[in-house]
Amino acid sequence: MSEITYDDFLKVDIRVGTVIRAEPYPEARKPAIKLWVDFGPEVGEKKSSAQITAHYDPETLVGKQVMGIVNFPPRQIGRFMSECLIVGFTDGEGGVVLAAPDQNVPNGGRLH
C-alpha cells in the first residue's frame, strides 16, 4: 500500500458508538447483521450492514461499543441502506472480529 499523509488520515472520520439494535439480515448475499449504532450527539444514530456472523449474534451485540467510519456516503445493501462502515479485522478463517476500545468511552469519540 502507498503511504498517506496525516491530512489524509484526518479525512477518515472513525468514531466509537454503542449498538442499540441488531437484527439478522438473511436476505444479504453474504451473511450479515443489521446494526443501529448510537455515535453520540454530534453524529447521531447510523445503520450498517456488517458481515460479522462468524463471531457474533444479534443478541450479543446490543450494548457493545464498536468503531465505525461515519463519513462514507450511504450504500444500498439489498433492501437496507447502510450509512456507516463498522470496522474489524479478519481472523485466520476469514471471519471478522470487531475493532472496539478496550474500555468504555463516550459515544462519538473520534479515533486519533
Structure description:
The protein is mainly beta. It has one domain: Nucleic acid-binding proteins (OB fold (Dihydrolipoamide Acetyltransferase, E2P)). It is built from 3 helices and 9 strands, in the order H-E-E-H-E-H-E-E-E-E-E-E. The strands form 3 sheets. A 5-stranded antiparallel beta sheet has the order 3-2-1-4-7. A two-stranded antiparallel ribbon has the order 5-6. It has a two-stranded antiparallel ribbon with strand order 8-9. The radius of gyration is 14 Å and the shape is globular. The two termini are 21 Å apart. The mean pLDDT is 96.
- What is the average per-residue confidence, as pLDDT, rounded to a whole number? 96
Shape: globular
Name the CATH homologous superfamily.
Nucleic acid-binding proteins
* Number of distinct helices: 3
Helix coverage percent of residues? 10-25%
As for the CATH topology, it is OB fold (Dihydrolipoamide Acetyltransferase, E2P)
What keywords describe this structure?
112 residues; mainly beta; OB fold (Dihydrolipoamide Acetyltransferase, E2P); 5-stranded antiparallel beta sheet; two-stranded antiparallel ribbon; 3 helices; 9 strands
What's this, in brief?
This protein is mainly beta. It has helices at residues 6-10, 40-43, 58-61, and strands spanning 14-25, 32-38, 45-50, 65-69, 75-77, 80-82, 85-86, 88-90, 96-98.
